Amino acid sequence: MGTMIENLPYVGLGLIGIGLIIVLVGIFGLAHIKNQEVEALSNKSDKLPTATKKEIFDKCLDNEIKNEVSAYGTTENEQVLYLANKGMNVEQIARQLQRGKGEIQLILSLEQKKRGLK
Fold first, then answer.
1. What percent of the chain has pLDDT over 90?
2. What is the domain extent for residue 32?
3. What share of the chain is helix, strand, coil (3-state, %, to 5)?
4. How confident is the prediction for the chain on average, in pLDDT?
5. Same domain, 59 and 104
6. Which of 31, 48, 65 corresponds to the end of one domain?
7. Judgement on whether residues 77 and 91 belong to the same structural domain of the protein
8. 92 burial class (0-12, 13-18, 19+ CB within 10 angstroms)?
9. Structural domains of the chain, count
10. Rounded to two decimals, what is the model's pTM?
11. In this predicted model, what pLDDT tens digit does every residue of 4-49 receive, in sequence order?
């Protein structure tokens, strides 16, 4: 019985050591699982199309201008004149309204003639 009590601290240290090993294995296991999740997400993000900052900016600008145009002019000619007054050139207006450059030039020239007659 005396030797059993003397061995008790060693048994306690052994149990503490086993517990420590279990904790470390758990920590490393969780780190490994987290690493796999990060790799899986990075693989998914590699497959997604990426847009440059300029593309994102241009898209936002186009949407903003479309909202302004639709709020201002109800007819297509009013939209052309509005964009021209905002400082856009013929090519930009044609691209924005998805119309031909010749058509935009015609609308602008007719408007200039109309203003000249008044």
1. 25
2. 1-48
3. 85, 0, 15
4. 82
5. yes
6. 48
7. yes
8. middle
9. 2
10. 0.39
11. 778 888 888 999 999 999 999 999 999 999 999 988 887 776 666 6
